[in-house]
Specification:
The chain is globular, with a radius of gyration of 27 Å. About 20% of the residues lie in helices and about 30% in strands. The two termini are about 50 Å apart. It is an alpha+beta fold and about 725 residues long. It has 3 domains: about 290 residues, Beta-galactosidase, Chain A, domain 5; about 230 residues, TIM Barrel; about 110 residues, Immunoglobulin-like, CATH 2.60.40.1180. Strand 23, helix 6 and strand 24 form a beta-alpha-beta unit. The chain has 13 helices and 37 strands.
Length: about 725
């Protein structure tokens, strides 16, 4: 066996095993020089002796990055049409290097085609303080002529056939992040997106594989995978006549053939893998720790409690109204006010959703004193100010479109395809002039108003026709890829100049809940649907891959503006407090009693905010399991504080709900219990009392099914939030 030291790059002799390791997990590869690159193992970290005996024990021995052209019956990670028309590619190990970079182990395995000057470097980044391995490829054409890439996956992983289940997310607008769990069967399973601009409304580019039968939250072996990409993706699980489910993930190649010029390198997005033997929640904890530390913008900073104007006033923006809302959120203890859509437009006033996108100048009829006055008023109220933009879009009714009709995505010789409001269009981010313009939107706002603290970045339309007025006619198939390259360039410029700015990824709700976007964004809007009951389901699914600190969760009015359900304010508060707490409401329509309840809740959320936003998640009872309830908790890393959530999801007479056992506590510690957001006339019997972590995890606490309130305040909504502090 050849030991590959740091910073070494050399051609390998035969029989080379490559170990890619994190603190608790490991991937073992076979990288014999001149041979196929093979995956031998992925799972819990192995001893040196076990690695040495791995092949004898029955290793996977599956191609790590299979190329199309030979053994065509199986799926391939890469497809290439070479300059001479040859559609076959044969990749063999050329060199291997390993190095340490910023606390991570970087492994680079260069593969070379046996005939053509065509190379693929398979890369692995293994974090040394979190259990996550990222993989991607760098595809290089050193020939004199261009080649065409017809497939370009980020990675491939074999999963041993057995009682394997997959957990994945699906949905639609206002119903994002819904959880599906199903056994893997023979055949092909494909999860993909072709929205063009957003990619998380419907399916998600993240999955979990439960290796020990039906998924369990806190037990069993689990592999989690997340493609870190903002554009169209495709995940495939191919189960044929072999012993392995073969998992492939990468950019969706549909209508995206890529012409790779001579000397050009094509880098695929990262595909992140994790492994846990502590069930689905264990895999989630790995994703959350990695995401907060390495992916999410400002993942180490507490998020502010905000009021967003949208559901409170919609397009009815005016100075007195904004000032009143700022005063109200300040009174309730909030820290930030965000003015949503409707503040801009000179020639065309933004009165509804059918005009003015692209004309990012203040509507002086609505705001005669401009943005600066609002920023000053926010400061006077003791809070920060934020603002909404939708920079990637325009309307046919706009000055921008009148000046630059060539900037929109449009198929040649075809009519425009219009979106929201019957006038919306997507700008072509493959065009550097468009990139400059979009950067200028943020730059101008921040230059004129440097104290703006927060930007809500929306995107309300997919790419609905295929055509770039900028790209060469021979490279029209590059549109989807170049759009997101342009998007990345803009975001990188913004972050370079405004590193401290908080930016939310809103895309008609949760359309950009993905790890490809979040390095430039601090959080995402889970859904335009703020109904508390449906949010229990959506936020439950979303928590599989994303931490609470990234999940904007707001208290809104009832009847809810999307589903028209009426829920209690207490219930809405308790659900919102399980994510990044905010409000989506017109406070002047609230009673003093409601404002005081929210004021109390905000004060109590500030107490638990570090635990919720930086703690470890333990999902306890799923709303999808038919128990008419849901329960979860967050525990700080030191296991000194915990927050326990319990929500009733349905009410039937003669209900008998399961008693919930807690998780993640220190069995040897004693925890004092305090209920937050209490509305009951009398405290819970265990209020202020202490219990061992062992007792709470083995027995739990009895949760009353109803609140003990005055008769005229009774309803069918029941929820509890318990704060546990170790003594």
């Amino acid at each position: 066996m050849i030991l590959i030291s740091a910073l070494l790059c050399a051609s390998l002799a035969a029989m080379a095993q490559v170990r890619v390791t994190t603190p608790e997990t490991e991937m073992v590869l076979k990288a014999d020089a001149g041979s196929d690159l093979k995956v031998l193992y992925y799972g819990a970290r192995l001893s040196d002796a076990d690695v040495a005996g791995l092949e004898a024990a029955g290793a996977a021995w599956v191609d790590a990055y299979p190329a199309y052209g030979f053994h065509c019956a199986g799926e391939a990670s890469i497809g290439v049409t070479h300059a001479d028309g040859n559609m076959s590619t044969v990749l063999k190990v050329d060199t291997v290097s390993q190095s340490q970079e910023n606390g991570a182990q970087i492994t680079r395995i260069r593969l070379k085609d046996t005939v053509y000057p065509f190379y693929v470097t398979v890369c692995y980044k293994a974090y040394q303080d979190v259990d996550m391995i990222e993989t991607w490829t760098e595809i290089e054409n050193l020939g004199k002529k261009a080649v065409t890439l017809t497939r370009f996956d980020s990675g491939h992983l074999p999963v041993r056939v057995g009682d394997v289940w997959i957990s994945h997310l699906h949905g639609t607008w206002a119903a994002e992040g819904r959880l599906t769990q199903e056994p893997l069967e023979r055949g092909m399973m494909v999860i993909k997106n072709k929205d063009g601009a957003r990619n998380a409304h419907t399916d998600h580019s993240e999955v979990m594989f439960s290796l020990d039968g039906k998924p369990q939250e806190n037990a069993g072996r689990v592999i989690g995978a997340a493609l870190c990409y903002s554009g169209n993706y495709e995940l495939r699980i191919d189960t044929r006549d072999t012993d392995y489910h073969e998992f492939f993930a990468g950019i969706n190649p549909d209508n995206s053939a890529y012409i790779l010029e001579s000397k050009e390198v094509f880098k695929t997005p990262e595909l992140a893998f994790t492994y846990s033997d502590e069930g689905l929640s264990g895999a989630s904890r790995n994703f959350h720790r990695w995401g907060r530390k390495y992916k999410l913008a400002h993942g180490d900073k507490e998020r502010k409690i905000l009021l967003n104007s949208w559901e409170g006033v919609y397009f009815d923006i005016n100075e007195p109204g904004m000032d009143q809302m700022m005063a109200d959120i300040a009174y309730m203890g909030g820290e930030l006010f965000v003015m949503d859509d409707g503040w801009f437009g000179e020639k065309y006033q933004r009165l509804t959703d059918n005009s003015s996108l692209g004309d990012w100048k203040v509507d002086r009829k609505k705001l005669p004193n401009g943005i600066g006055w609002l920023v000053e008023r926010a400061e006077a109220h003791g809070i920060k100010f934020g603002i909404w933009i939708e920079p990637e879009m325009t309307n046919t009714t706009s000055e921008l479109f009148e000046k630059h009709p060539e900037w929109v995505i449009k198929a040649p010789e075809r009519d425009l395809v219009l979106g929201r409001g019957g006038t919306q269009l997507v700008l072509d981010l493959s065009n550097p002039e468009v990139q400059d313009f979009i950067f200028s939107i943020v730059d101008d706002l921040m230059t004129e108003n440097p104290d703006i603290d927060y930007i809500k970045w929306d995107a309300n339309m997919p790419i609905s026709n295929h055509g770039s007025q900028y790209l060469d006619k021979k490279k029209q198939s590059h549109l989807y890829i170049e759009y997101h390259r342009g998007f990345a360039k803009v975001c990188e410029r913004i972050r370079a100049k405004y590193p401290d700015l908080t930016i939310q990824a809103c895309a008609s709700g949760g359309g950009r809940a993905n790890w490809g976007v979040l390095p430039w964004f601090d959080e995402f809007w889970v859904s335009d649907n703020t109904d508390a009951l449906q949010r229990v389901y959506m936020q439950w699914g979303t928590s599989y891959f994303f931490p609470a600190i990234a999940m904007a969760s707001h208290i809104s009015a009832t009847p809810n503006h999307t589903v028209f359900r009426t829920t209690s304010l207490k219930y809405r508060i308790d659900v919102a407090m399980s994510g990044r707490l905010g409000m989506e409401i017109q406070p002047k329509n609230m009673t003093d009693e409601e404002k005081d309840l929210c004021r109390k809740a905000i004060a109590e959320y500030k107490q638990i905010r570090p635990v919720v936003q930086f703690g470890d998640i333990y999902r306890l009872v799923s709303p999808y399991d038919g128990h008419n309830m849901a329960s979860m908790m967050y525990v700080d890393p030191e296991k000194t504080e915990a927050v326990f959530y319990w929500w009733k999801t349905e009410t039937f007479y003669d209900d008998h709900l399961p008693r919930v056992k807690m998780a993640g506590l220190d069995p040897a510690k004693s925890y004092k219990v305090h209920e937050l957001n209490r509305i009951d006339n009398v405290p819970l019997p265990y209020e202020g009392k202490s219990f061992s972590g062992k007792f709470l995890m083995e027995n739990g606490l009895e949760i009353p099914l109803k609140h003990k309130v005055d008769y005229h305040k009774q309803d069918d909504w029941s929820s509890r939030v318990l704060y546990l502090i170790a003594e």
